Amino acid sequence: MERDLSSNRTASEKAAKGIDESGDEAKDFSNSVKKATNTGKDAYGKLSKLVDTAKKIGAALGAAIAAVGTACVAAEKSTA
């Protein structure tokens, strides 16, 4: 009976160690997911700024092209 108890204790200790290791691995995985989430959020923020800048550049280019077009029409009228 003592041998059975000792065997059961050893098995219980191994199981407890396995559970502890699983918990540590789950925590490491959770930290990895958090880091990936933060990286994604950072990339999203940077891309959002890039898109906003591109929109502003597009608007400025559109205004410049319209001004050139207007100047060309005015120049054409003045030479006609």
Question: Could you describe the 3D structure shown?
Answer:
- By secondary structure, this protein is mainly alpha-helical.
- Helix content is 98%, strand content 0%.
- The protein is rod-shaped, with a radius of gyration of 34 Å.
Largest sheet report: none
Count of DSSP H/I helices: 1
Low-confidence runs: none
Q: Percent range for helical residues?
A: over 70%
Structure keywords:
mainly alpha, 80 residues
Sum this structure up briefly.
With 80 residues, the protein is mainly α.
Secondary structure layout plus pairing:
Blueprint: H1 2-79
